[in-house]
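Lab channel / #folding
Pinned by the channel admin:
"Please post every new chain as: sequence first, then the structure tokens as a reply. Keep commentary short and put observations after the output so the thread stays searchable."

First post following the new format, from NK:
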Amino acid sequence: SNYPDYYELWIDGILVSTDNYTRGGNILYSLDNYTYILGNHSVYIWAVGLDGKVGSMTAEFLVYSSSSTFITVNKLEVNDFLSVGNYINFTIFSAYPNYYELWIDGVLVSTDNFSSESYILYSLDNYTSILGMHSVYIWAISLDGKIGTMTVEFEILSLPNDIIINIIKLDNYEYNSTGNELQFSITSQYPNYYMISIDTILLFVDNYSEGELNVFSIDNYEIGVHNLTIWLTELDGKEAKIEAVFTVYSKAEVDSPDPLIFDPPITAFIFSGILIFIPGMFILISYINQQKIKSFLPSKKSKISVKNYFKKPNK
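Reply from TO:
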């Protein structure tokens, strides 16, 4: 312009600079603030001279990225049910790191910024109490808008284990006597709780510990045979059940009670869901996951009256 005055510089429709100018002078303006915004950007320059003459120029520039964002799982360390020290280790590669999201079983469990090629660890111990398959979804975005994803799965299994119900004491007893007890212990990898019922009536529910002696009173039952059931479950969902009977007798019915029926203890095992029995004395195997222990009423000795064998002499 023969009569320089001032100019305006607009980028993406926003006035970013205005100043006086000189004829033929170079004007510089940095565009670095726009390199983090991908795509086309518009530039509009407007200038006016002292004589009122106006000049304008329109241009565009493109900010682009040729990078990619991808994720690798370095290690997925998962052990058995209720174990500890389980984790996922993954790395995100990106020329323009930003942040990631970690989802497990459809729930967002972690989000954070990341550095390219660094190791990211997340503990999976909270999931070892839940048997079955678990899904892991990793989503990451870079500053250039490039997205990377990764999906993996892990499975929590319980260790093969034997559930052992060991009946240590279960005696027949005389009516109205006291101190009669059921004593038993349970061997289990993942102890949870057990239930005791007698004659189909639920009487007791409690947690149990590995190898602990459990004592339960069986006093105050009527004369006759009574059915006892012990049912238990493990934290991994496995179940076991043992059935036994005990007899309450009247002293008037017998001369002397039989010896204790369960002198050797009776043990019930589970192998892969099938109950197998090692009997102490009387045993009757029924069906999968169940055991019945047979008890008998004390034997009655026959009584012979002398009167039946000696006739009175004839008068």
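NK: Confidence is low (pLDDT under 50) at residues 259-315.
TO: also worth noting, The domain at 70-156 is CATH 2.60.40.10 (Immunoglobulin-like).
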